[in-house]
């Protein structure tokens, strides 16, 4: 979609595409951006595209509180679920503004992360945190009773404290510049099992939700697949007005940008019609009852119009040592993923490759975002959203002002209590159908990291296969035998229980250990190909200081102090040319292929 305002084109160069083709642009202007990172589009365009980015992240953001509600014993408390959804939207908006303004300063959206779901669900599955049997029976649950409130709030408080303490590690790693040292020892054979097991470990949640009505779930899955895969190259004409052309049409790839939202909305509407005409059973004990849309109908009326989330709204956070170690495993995975997102975002927004100080600052701000998420009580952290990075390539608008508008939109949506309440009325099988697609893509995204390695090598086949299998086997056995860990130290037992029931930690640990100890060349391990993925970036982009410098004159103030060149997150930070430590360009990009063709990033926007 090209953008023309008042008859004037706004274009800047994207890094060159060796293939010389653009399958997403009718005009073939694959190397043209309507607006670059530092450009400011008209206010109405900022608002429109900001809402679009919000809708693109919609599926991933609401999925997290809906999954957490099962571990928090909130399956039958729709009002509290709506408050969780509103809170995560609000915090995501705040973190987005911080990242765009003071962090990596690229047009990148922040939201909840699935990397923290595995350790949090592992913590909540421990014997002392298992939900009481009466909370699973809707007829026995009184959502306003002090006993029920204490049940779910005590679990949320321990999640809050663990996330806040664990996030401090990310803050230190980011602002101290240690992320470069971390990336030196982490390769594709560590990333592949870690990311893949995030999706695989959630199969039970997807199956449980989808199993309430497989027909509705399959319909939702099919719709999302049709929109995102079969119809993604079909542009829909929309009316548009400009002073030069007056009223005319502009073609937009709606199916590619919003497939999850369209699939959920259409399935939701069909469930509503089936409910109105009593096709679905009205007996709670019959199969298919949870596909009805009137089960939680009163939650919209009970929800307040305005509700301002605030820190400590669920009580004073408590800290669990086991929870902290589990969160650390998720935080490390999230950091590695975000470094790759920064490079992908820079390429699609016409910015130069992010320098070290920008990456350090971005990781540090994400750590602060996780700290805020823990304080506000989302039950999760924050990370960069790759779905929205792909949207940049479709809209051809790389301005960070658009993401600023999107951040404000999420804050506003988080304040409107009715918005969160509406999302809780989505039928459970529809959510299950969305999970089938979403978790499958997360699994495949991890496996795709193996493209950089030599998979004809028996060494690599062994490492990946062993890591994946142990990542599934050990947690499954520990869950079935929770009393098997008995070291004599209760705190140590809890730590081991959480870590060994977190699939991504077990698989990632063995992948890391074996990849760094079994002899193998850098080319065989995939390190060389991964490093070369960013070496041929185009230099015909905006100046680095204009993009990654701090705002409000902070750059000028810092440049007057000589000591700032030794601070890893300052724009004046200098790195020796003879330094052989991997720079930001040596980092591991889990989403970028080893050639300069950006279309694979755009093709993944739907999922």
From TrEMBL:
Region entry Disordered, spans: 575-597
Keyword Membrane: yes
Keyword Ribosomal protein part of the UniProt annotation: no
GO annotations of cellular component type: plasma membrane
Biased composition regions of type Polar residues, renumbered to the chain: 578-587
Domain of life assignment: Eukaryota
Bias (Basic and acidic residues): 588-597
Classification via InterPro entries: NCS2 (IPR006043), Xan_ur_permease (IPR006042)
Predominant subcellular localization, coarse grouping: membrane
Pfam family, one: Xan_ur_permease
One function term, GO molecular function aspect: transmembrane transporter activity
PANTHER family named among the record's database cross-references: XANTHINE-URACIL / VITAMIN C PERMEASE FAMILY MEMBER (PTHR11119)
Protein name per Swiss-Prot or TrEMBL: Solute carrier family 23 member 1-like protein
